[in-house]
What does this fold into?
Amino acid sequence: MSNMITPSSTAAGRPPVREQTQDARRASRLFSLDAYRGLIMISLAFGGFGLAATARGMLEENPNDSFWMQIQQQFSHAQWVGWGYWDMIQPSFMFMVGVSMAYSYAKRAARGDSYLRMLGHAATRSLVLILLGVFLSSSWSSSTNWSFMNVLSQIGLGYLFLFLVLDRGWIAQMAVAAAVLGGTWAMYTYHDAPTIDLTTGDDSVGVSAEWAQKELALVGPAWQKNANVGQAIDVVVLNWFPRETPFEYNKGGYQTINFLPSLATMIFGLLCGELLRSEFSSWSKLSLLIIGGGVGVAAGYALDFYDLCPLVKRIWTPSWALFSSGICCWILAAFYLLFDVVKLRFLAYPLVVVGVNSLVMYFMGQLLRPWATKTLQTHFGGPSERAFGTGLFDLFGPAYEPMTHSIMVGLFFWLICLWMYRQKLFVRI
It folds into this structure.
């Protein structure tokens, strides 16, 4: 009799069995999150399906083709102000980290992990993610490239802070996000950075006159490429690390302190994750996701429209953090409706296969593309070795070669994820 567990009994400080069961149920895996993660990882590992490169070729033949102009815009990064689908890849990463944290640590708490143990796990995960980002940034370098702009490093820099606001209540979490975004805005606005002359540009930070006149004409001096507070910080901080040559600027204009406003994006994701774990009805959750997305999009757009803060993904302006988080809310809402409310889960299978092994897919896409290309050409014919009457990547003609190439390589990676999914092999940090 002494070994029996009753609903009201506790052991080792754990909640009663009934509460543990409720917590475990609420911490169960969110199907829509796996599907969303799979969509983003497939988009990235498939190289955007080669659509940007295909569009460039098509526009060389017909510069006024509106269809391919739209495709190129959506599958290329905005040069500075503006956005397209391809600019939503990293915000989705950050946002999903927040959603996932609400579930993963609820699961840990339900199995009895103490707060200190979870804090230690969060700190360890932060460090591992930062170093993985450095590893990927160094992949094609002759020495360690101490750069922290990679998405994994950016997540790692903010991850421990995100954990510290977990389960603190939505008011406190919103206050922290507002403080982070407000502080970021003030840092950029009140920093006395040198202004780039649009007529001459500034070659010392990689900004040509032609590019400046095209991309920076409507941008306030605080938000110019490589002439802002983030650039000033990087010139100091990144040169603390051993380097072959001193750090001068990032070619794309990305800054290490992007992790601060992107922390707000992760907090918004955490809010959504905690909402989806709540006792609200499915339709109430869906409604709140849609409304929250609308508020984020409207707020971000308004800041840009009234020239208070431009929409620039490359330096993660506060307006971009709000706007992109709103779009992420809408994407999550659509997936939640399809796969967790209506439960059309068979449609998500190709996405979930990747979503549950997102780290594997990400690393394959970042590191193994040349090897996968060579392997496919070896076995199925490359440009000089024809199979079935044509090269594998030329099946639909030379104009569509970039698209065919990217899709074939992506399918190669997807099949590896499918095998791992069937073998129940999941790689996590």
Remarks:
- The first helix runs from residue 17 to 26.
- Residues 29-191+228-422 form one domain.
- The chain has one domain: 29-191+228-422.
